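User: Round two. Same drill as before: sequence, then structure, for each protein.

Assistant: Same drill it is. First protein:
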Amino acid sequence: MSKLTNMLTKGVNIYNPRNVLFYEEAGGFTALKKAAAANPQDIIAEIKKAKLLGRGGAAYPAGSKWDHLFHISETPKYIVCNADEGEPGTFKDRLIMEDLPLKLLEGIIIAGVVFRAKAGYIYVRGEYRKLQKRLLAAIRNVHDAGYLGENIAGTGFDFDIHVISGAGAYVCGENSALLNSTEGKVGRPRIKPPHLAEVGLFLNPTLVNNVETFANIPLIVNMGGDAFLQAGHPDSGGSKLVCISGHCRNRGVYEIPLGSVTLRDIIYDPELGGGFTGGRKLKFFHIGGQSGAIGGPGQLDTVYSYTDLKKAGLSVGSGAVVVYDESVSVIEYLKSVTEFFVSESCGKCVPCREGNRQLLKIMREFSDVAANHKDRLPAYAQSVKPVMQRLIQTMTDASFCGLGQTAAAALNSAAKLFADEFEGVSR
């Protein structure tokens, strides 16, 4: 039985993904017409029934976010799509923007109709230059077909979507930093509360969702929230796009139903990761992005769902699953992860800015001792372990935003999972 589904990715092989006529023939924009004729609260109720969790990484319930914004009376309201896909090992939003841009736009327009929003914005990571041009072409086509601009789909409602280019800052994947960047300010996170639903873009109420989240909205409107939920896990409906990379055979983006596939399936199933070449074995995997935890062979039978992964100390996160074989040093890998966070910290708060630097210093010392003075490794590990734990705890509790709060997640999990490499003792 296949481990794959095509709930979301149906239509990926359409010859011209930006052709509105092809999209309409495949059922496109029927959800928009249905939403435009419905009571907005009924649409939100279906999204809540679907238990659609945010697909960008935080997994916040989309229905609750939409409901919150709907009950805020201030206007104008804005719709923002977070397409700043800067998480290493993550490239599933790219697939949607390349091959399913009209489905993404339909989801954003539905949100615009529900909230009678003034405008929509898609904030695209700076490295996706070609994608930005393709999105603009798709927007022009949708505009020409009457689904954007004045009196969209004959509703008497005016709505347009604009594309904003990021400049390569990882921190702008955080929603409030993204809004600051959209406004032309420094891309640094805002203090919350107030929440973005209350004070967002241009200090007005704003909905911010990820690309994959918006792309699921037409599905929910068309099939209903209950059917969407049944297609996934009882705690999180629908499917999930996973990005498999690293040392496995089959690297790419795959759509799997939530709750029906294990991590073992993702890494070893011939339809998915396909295992390893050359007879090598799995050493560890990094799941959910750089800010996610590291897992090992003992966790392979964990079901891929938000609930089951959380119970195992892991997370869905951005959907990344980066696989490493036994040739990789955990310490060297974690050093590179820490270097990444040192580079990408915005510097706004001390726990993140200085904590990451100190962790990198420790990881470099670990690397040197492990490579050149292995006999000293147990003593060094014993002396530095309390310092490392205090640093991680301080960063997790006191950092201003999610970047600093989760920057040490990989290190924290790997230090427990691979204590022998850190302490230089066999177990």
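Second protein:
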Amino acid sequence: MNINEIRSQFPVLDQQVYGKPLVYLDNAATTQKPLCVIDRERDYYLHENCNIHRGVHYLSQQATEAYEHARQTVARFVNAPEAHEIVFTRGTTESLNLLATSLGRMIVESETGKGGPHCVPLTVLVTAMEHHSNLVPWQQLVQQQGGKLLVAPMDDDGVLDLQAYEERLKQGPQIVAMAHVSNTLGTVNPIKEMIRLAHQYGALTVVDGAQSMAHLPIDVQDLDCDFFVFSGHKMYAPMGIGGLYGKTKWLEQMPPYQFGGEMVDTVSFERTTFNKLPFKFEAGTPNVGAALGLETAIGFIEGLDRSAVAAHEALLVNATLERLAAIEGMRFIGQAPERSGLVSFVIDGIHPYDLGTIIDKMGVAVRTGHHCAEPVMTRFGIPGTVRASFAVYNTLEEIDVFVKAVSRAAMMLR
């Protein structure tokens, strides 16, 4: 890969902050956008802007065709059997809330005879490393239904305890929600095996792919997951767009999440019927421009040698670990053998916010705090971490700048 050529496609990187060249290491929060993505969204508003699916005129037909082509591209990218199994959402969080609301209702109604007296308590299993978006919706759901939330623990390295996970499965959860890659620890979970075990015990599986779509090849058929969710803005696409893959047999049974607009079929004052997949779940005017930007971002990713990208990102992670380890008081949070894309750490006696604030003044953008995974911080007995996360455009030279900034900030704060 020619990293300089890749970087030239990201104009935001070519700037200074506080008089220093920007080093952007906050990619797990959001990646920067290449010019091709920015241009595609701009081009839509310049030449194609129109509401879709509703008009017979030229612009509406063009925009509709482009939007549905983007859906087909996403389906191909994750190897979904059918394009209608891709539902466009605002991102991972909305996708998970959709599932907690709609899938949860489907299960409860099917198991209670639509409110009958023999209610089976709803049980959901999550892992100890989940982002709040893959925890809170399920937590609220089971609390509303009088059910329970099970948690599969992890060890001190941030590795899931598979034996304990299977023990939790024996308690009969109807839904298992799991992170593919931890946004805090970088752990790559063995989700194919986790899905196999969940199905063996009769549970439906939901995979949070927010941190994996940009880094790992995704094949939902090979994984055999029931649902897979993701955000575009973490894979070089615009904000406000993402998606939900779901197996047809479940999507067809699930009730709508929101009402109005394109998701209806027929409406009267007495009765409403709903549209076919995937439109049943896409109420209102969609973010067409962002969907086209997402398709372009997929093209950008596919235009790279993905094995070379993976090797480059692994090099960045390993170099960061090796060079930070020399700093006194360094403690890495998450040391799983299988990891992707980021390094989290604390330094003894220094609050992560203080460290991050000084690093920022040196031109380095990292994330500090609990990273929307507060139970992970509780597990490790810390208030938060400093997290450096990487993308294809980052360089070893930036790692050197970052490590020097951390070292200098640590000296200032001691």
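The radius of gyration is 22 Å.

User: Perfect.
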